[in-house]
What we know:
Blueprint: H1 2-27, H2 29-35, E1 42-43, E2 50-52, H3 57-78, E3 87-90, H4 94-101, E4 111-114, E5 117-120, H5 133-150, H6 152-157, H7 161-172, H8 181-189, H9 215-232, H10 234-245, H11 250-258, H12 262-289
Parallel strand pairs: 2-3, 3-5
Antiparallel strand pairs: 1-2, 4-5
Helix pairs in contact: 1-2, 2-4, 3-5, 5-7, 7-9, 9-10, 10-11
Bound molecules: zinc ion.
Amino acid sequence: MKKKSLKITILSIVVLVIICFLVLFSRSLVGKALLKSKGQFIRLSSDTCILYEPAAKSQAAAIARAYPDAVKRVEEVHGLPFKKPFNVYVCASQNSLNEYVGNPPGLRIRGAVVFNNIYISPTAFDFNGFDTHKETLTHEMSHLHLKHHIGYFRQRGSVPTWFHEGLANFVAGSGGEGISDKEAVKAIMDGHHFIPDDKGRFFKMKRAADYGMQYPMLHKQTKMFVSYMHDSHTSSFKQFLLDVQDRANFADAFQKRFGMDVVSMWDEFEQQLKAAESENDSTANSNVQL
Ligand SMILES: [Zn+2]
């Protein structure tokens, strides 16, 4: 009898804990995002994978026009096709996007990937004075493509932030809008740059604040570094990216394909920036003499 009542008590506690967890989760930003209905989104008749909130019809049409080139570019650079179809949700306001992706109100982001969906906010069409909707769509597609091939957990836990952001920026031509190459090079030369890790962190992913900088500068630097890797080691880069998408260990694949570790690649990148800088200086000096 005593055993039976103990079992009932334990079961009641477990049920209570589960209910409390579900209530708290449903009230969290992430919980609200997952439970939020997408019923008001309308499917674009010409491109059925693109859906829009009623006030975002013209933005949805622009996204539809950018869609084929974005898919082509991502598949070309990543070297593999997308694994499955996906939807693109074009939101009518920044707050609407924030609610769907579980961000706090007021946060200004241009796009995001949640599960197999891409969300685009109106900010993509006017980001600090730049219309970046094509770049935003392509950037988010690069993230989604990587997720298709290696899964959400591996993308966060095994691939360092600088690489998957740098790759998306390189593919899309996004990142660092409003920051000149010169400013970014100066920051790097002054030691104000991200640390090129060789693995990701599932919990507490690296953020711009971890490096004492704002996101535009982080995106600019990641794009420059990944572009350097691609442009100076093109065939190795392609093989490396295929290895990563085949779930190889990031650091091992890096060493195997580039013949050096990430830190050595960063040193090489800095040397190249320094050489370019001194070449610019000598050109400027000779111009003065003339
Ligand atoms: Zn990104």
